Inverse folding.
């Protein structure tokens, strides 16, 4: 999908201030309210804008440590079963398939450095992978 200069300004505005509202966005961009709404709808239908949800600060919830864990997946099982099991671990914030020395990179949070070991132990218990890369 091609986006024009107005789409770009609209995306930039809503990325910076997701709660701004269509009326205020139209005022700031100096275009009609209907134009802003139509553009947002089109960008959402095309998958360019995926949501307007809140951005969560893990530290404010007591999870002051963020770490990245690289996993090496057993080729027989594949990534999908491991990703499904990792999705059940609340401290796993993201899991991405990667290339290079590992197969999957996970962003995890923990309450402290000591708690990080507990999170890693939970991840180690997930079946279908060979363990973290060291």
């Amino acid at each position: 999908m091609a986006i024009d200069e107005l789409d770009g300004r609209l995306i930039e505005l809503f990325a910076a201030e997701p709660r701004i509202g269509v009326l205020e966005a139209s005022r700031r961009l100096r275009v009609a309210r209907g134009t802003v709404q139509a553009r947002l709808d089109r960008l959402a239908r095309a998958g360019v804008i995926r949501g307007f949800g809140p951005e969560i600060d893990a530290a404010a919830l007591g999870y002051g440590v963020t770490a990245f864990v690289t996993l090496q997946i057993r080729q027989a099982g594949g990534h999908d079963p491991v990703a499904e099991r990792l999705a059940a671990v609340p401290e796993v914030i993201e899991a991405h398939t990667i290339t290079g020395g590992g197969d999957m990179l996970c962003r995890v949070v923990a309450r402290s450095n000591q708690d990080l070991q507990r999170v890693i132990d939970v991840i180690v218990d997930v079946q279908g992978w060979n363990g973290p890369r060291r």
In short: The first strand starts at residue 65 and ends at 73. The chain has a mean pLDDT of 90. The longest helix spans residues 33-45.
